[in-house]
């Protein structure tokens, strides 16, 4: 850092900021030496508003209440109590990524609701960091529910399927 303030430093920093904006840069770092043990190090960073793509997560479909069904509020209140992650047959996501139900676009899915699966059988693929990770069935049984849609982003621990 500078031991003595230099009058040209303010103008130099302003010029760097203008250069940053003019050339559509996000960061610029410069070191200016004035002599032995006298220098100026400047780092100019422009904050950019990151526009995140909307992410949607699949959730179990809730029944649509109708005017003819007076018991609908009681059924709707009971629905949130059913947490798929708490189900003993839930298969949680072991990683963050994008879940694919088929080996490639247009192909048949690995499994469907009602299918019998055996332990170790591939249920789906999760793409993480450009790597396709096959997710095996933790136990043998019947696929009761598939809780994610094809090409859906998933978090660690997100319930993917229920096998009973």
Key terms:
164 residues, 10 strands, Biotin carboxyl carrier protein of acetyl-CoA carboxylase, alpha+beta, four-stranded antiparallel sheet, OB fold (Dihydrolipoamide Acetyltransferase, E2P), 2 helices
Structural features, described:
This protein is α+β, with helices and mostly antiparallel strands. The protein folds into 2 domains: 8-45, no CATH class; 87-163, OB fold (Dihydrolipoamide Acetyltransferase, E2P), CATH 2.40.50. The protein has helices spanning 8-22, 72-78; strands at 27-35, 38-45, 90-92, 97-100, 116-117, 122-128, 131-136, 141-146, 152-154, 159-163. The strands form 3 sheets. A 4-stranded antiparallel beta sheet has the order 3-10-8-5, with no helix packed on it. It has a 4-stranded antiparallel beta sheet with strand order 7-6-4-9, with no helix packed on it. The protein is rod-shaped. The protein starts with 7 loop residues before the first helix and ends with a strand. Mean pLDDT is 78; it is low at 68-79.
